[in-house]
C-alpha cells in the first residue's frame, strides 16, 4: 500500500526528532496489527501536528515533556527528552519544565519524570550523574 503524503511528511520529522534507528526499528518490528498504530502516529502526530507552522520543534518538545509528565508516561518521556535535546532544549530548560510540571501535576508524577529524564540525560552525556555540591 502506498503511503500518504501526510505519512511521508511525518516520517521525515519523526526521524529527525527521534532518530532514524528508533523510528525505522519501530516500523520494521510492526506486524500488520501494530502497523495501524504506526501509521496513525506518523500521520497524525508527526505529519499533522509536528509539521504545522504555529510552533517550532523546540517549543513542541517542551510541551511534550510537560504533557507526558502530566499523563504519567515516563517511558514515552524518555524518548522525548532525547528528542528535546535534538531540538535544542537545554538541560536547564528540561529541569525547569519538569519542576513546573511537578507543581501542577504532583510530586509522584514529577518524580517519575525526573527519574526518566535523568536516565536519558546521563546516557546522552548531558549530565554527569555526580552528586551536586551542598548548598
From TrEMBL:
Residue stretches making up the Carboxymuconolactone decarboxylase-like domain: 37-119
Pfam families (UniProt xref): CMD
Signal peptide, first to last residue: none
Taxonomic superkingdom: Bacteria
InterPro entries linked to this entry: 4CMD/NDH-1_regulator, AhpD-like, CMD-like
Designated name of the protein: Carboxymuconolactone decarboxylase-like domain-containing protein
Biological source species: Methylobacterium isbiliense
Organism phylogeny: Bacteria, Pseudomonadati, Pseudomonadota, Alphaproteobacteria, Hyphomicrobiales
Amino acid at each position: 500500500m502506498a503511503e500518504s503524503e501526510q505519512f511521508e511528511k511525518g516520517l521525515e520529522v519523526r526521524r529527525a526528532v527521534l532518530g532514524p534507528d528508533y523510528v525505522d526499528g519501530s516500523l520494521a518490528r510492526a506486524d500488520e496489527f501494530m502497523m495501524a498504530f504506526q501509521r496513525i502516529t506518523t500521520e497524525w502526530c508527526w505529519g499533522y501536528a509536528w509539521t504545522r507552522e504555529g510552533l517550532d520543534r523546540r517549543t513542541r518538545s517542551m510541551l511534550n515533556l510537560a504533557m507526558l509528565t502530566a499523563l504519567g508516561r515516563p517511558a514515552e518521556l524518555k524518548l522525548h527528552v532525547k528528542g528535546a535535546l535534538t531540538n535544542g532544549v537545554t538541560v536547564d530548560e528540561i529541569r525547569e519544565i519538569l519542576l513546573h510540571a511537578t507543581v501542577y501535576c504532583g510530586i509522584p508524577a514529577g518524580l517519575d519524570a525526573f527519574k526518566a529524564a535523568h536516565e536519558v540525560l546521563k546516557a546522552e552525556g548531558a549530565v554527569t550523574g555526580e552528586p551536586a555540591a551542598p548548598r
